[in-house]
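pasting for the record
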Amino acid sequence: MLTLAFDTATGAATSALVRDGEVLGERSSRAVRVLADAEELLEQAGAEPRELSRLVVGTGPGSFTGVRMGLAAARGLAFALDLPLAGVSTLAALAAGAPGALPVVDAGRHEVFTLVDGAPAVTAPGELRVEPGTTCVGDGAVRYRFLLEALGAEVPPRESELHLPRARFHVELARAFVDPETVEPLYLRLPDAERAQ
């Protein structure tokens, strides 16, 4: 089974091509390159788009535009290739890449997306409740490093792979492959344009 997965919710888009649990290739770039990355992964593996069995997309939370772009690209590919689609939380993928760590995604507006009691939430970084020694990963952890470290958290170096929601983890976490139209984004708050109205 050949699976293409990608996530565009954070500043670094990730994509992966996985066949029967084996990662054939991975990419990390800007969200606008995700389809080009997918094409390159297929080419590198010697595969054609029609050989894909299913797709997985990151549903956020994260950048509103990034989440919308990724979901639109995934739905478009799924409809064009007649493939089932699964959505996976960006927070869950970050946590899968760093077991025991707290995922923290930059939400803009001096807020972060994270898990509170196991559920996705948006909060000010200074209001996070972390046990001393808790590792925090994600672009929000990098942005608010000093604040999180002052709370007793540990944040890996900026260049650490742990800060990327690697698409290979999306494949591992995907459970329900469904009609592409039914996969919904996880926003957690209204977009800026709607708030202004």
